[in-house]
Amino acid sequence: MHSISRRHFGRNALATAGVALATPLFVRPASAADRLMVVQWGAPWIDVSKEIAEKYNQTHNTQIAWELHSGGSAAVVAKIKARWPNTQYNLLSVWDPVFRDMIAEDWLLPVDESIVTNLSAIPDAFIQKNAAGQSMTVPLSTAGAFWGYREDVLPDGFDSIEDLLRPEFKGQLAVPYPINLSGLFVVSCAIQRGGNEFDVEPGWEFLKELASSGSIGRICTNNSEFINAMASGQYGVGFWNNGGWFSASKNFPVTIKNRMPDNKGFLYNEGLCVLKGSPEETAWEFANYFADSRNNELYNMNLGSGPTHPEAKANPAIASWYYSPEELEDHAYIPDYAHLGRVKNEWNQRWEQEIVPLIR
Amino acid sequence: MSVDRFERALLLPALVVFVPLLLGPIAVLLAESLKPYEGGRIGGTDGAGLTFTNYTDIWNPSYAHYFSDTFRIGLIVAVAALLLGYPIAHFVVRIAAPRLSKAILIGLIAMLFLSMIVRIYAITMTYGPLGPLAEVSWLFGIDPRERVHTEMMVIFGLLHAVLPLVALTLIGTVQTLNPRLEEAAISLGAPHWKAFFAITLMLSVPGILSAGIIGYAFCISNLVVPMIMGKGFVVFVSNLIYFRFSEVSNFPSGAAISIIMLLVSLGLFYGAMRFVANLWPPVKPRSR
Lengths: 360, 288
Prior knowledge:
heterodimer; A: 360 residues; alpha/beta; D-Maltodextrin-Binding Protein, domain 2; eleven-stranded mixed β-sheet; B: mainly alpha; MetI-like fold; 13 helices; 0% strand
């Protein structure tokens, strides 16, 4: 049997220790890439976001993990609340009402404008601020919620949503669950009858008439459901956001009714925010990349929404969906989203108690 | 250690894991249901005392419809699944050739692996206005725009999801029955149908009850089928809970409805089991 002498053992041990101590001088450990968990909507948002992120990763060693919103973007706040402050999310792509909710919860980091240099080009009115006046969001899109219809299903369309009470529209409406789109559907009904988001009783009366007339054919709870509903041909009229309408319009002729004399088109902003506890520099660099003019144009070209960077061009296919500065006062409406956030629970209960029984 | 004690001890690891994972979240839910909710905030307000408002808000006659729809449609689907599942199970175990039995078993198991979303949209498109079976509802005098049609679609969707589960459970039940009991009855002069109903079916009752409970529980707790196929006007209690947690951020109200649903469901299942136990008391083993 081969035996090892103490001298032999000691020599080998010293050599091994020497190699171990010298290794860091010659072998660099792989640099730990920063990791970001980003929450984004499904197609088409996630498709174009991944395209932009791929370009970003050509010059930045950042691992991007994506998670999709399930339903409206408000669903993610439940997940964050359950684990706060130990949330795994870093950047969220949401819209104004949800920004307001998260600002109220003090979950967001103020924008580091030394990193997000593109923010200075974006109109200040688009940026959500906290009580101290700090910018809390990086707006990427100007979007909207509108009434519209499929021209091939309803060639004659409609001129006013009062028309939707007529028998020929029975079962034709695909509308949002009222809390989706932050209650804009209810606000639209209120505006129709001379009210607004603060004086909403006229809207509930109109909704009861719509429900009783049988016009409401489907109540959609997410973007995919609306796109599928409009694609099925079973529904000719809808109230939904630009993303849903844009997807529908790729396959079917669609008319957006955002210039009706007795109603409005609703505008809001979507964008990115960063949660506290995130790798700040990495997160803001990523957000800034999305906000530059080229990527902002690419992002919105695919979504059917308006870019926020002044040098980014809008998709010509949806040019008529948005308003010129002169049209804003007559046709656009930007509700108080903070107020809508405060009343959504009450409106949800009223919908369940007063409207659904009429539709069933 | 006696065999009995040893077998009880084997349960300990499962209980240690299961009890905190099951009872812990229910306790958290109960605590959340007693918190007040402030509009615009996310979740209940901590440190603002306790309240029963979240429970009294549900004490509105309109909410009775949601509970009755949930339990009624669930019952219809569970009964339909049993009526369809038992013949499938009996055929697979007693009648079909081995190859056909295996093929049916594989088909049932494969359906369980198929995504629920895929199945739901397949049914929606099949019976939709452009689908191959679009005219089926008209044959029954049902307008596709009517609520009855929507309810029918929800029932189809739930049945599609729960039938494989129920059939597989019943296959296990029928397999444990000794076929010679039925043969003995026939050899003593009983007609086939009488032997089947008096012996095979009666002996299957505990298994039928188990399969029925599994199917019923699956149906009343289902979220996806009523959400997609219900069109927003066939709404289950699970949908009410989901909207409160995910859209409104009113966790206390969602928690309160969850607790109410839990208590009502437990009461129903206990009542059903007591009813069957009274009709078919368990046979006690003879003491040696």
